[in-house]
Amino acid sequence: MKKIFLALMAVAAITFTTSCGNKTQQGEAAADSTEVAANAGDEASSIIATLSEQLNAGDATKLQATLETVKAKVAELIKNNPEAAKQYVEQVQNFLKENADKVKAVVGDNAAANAAVTALTSVEPETIVNTIVQQTGDAAEAAKDAAVDAAAQQVDAAKDAAQQKVEDAKAAAKQKAEETKAAAKQKASEAVDNAAKDIKKGLGL
Question: The pTM is what?
Answer without folding.
Answer: 0.46
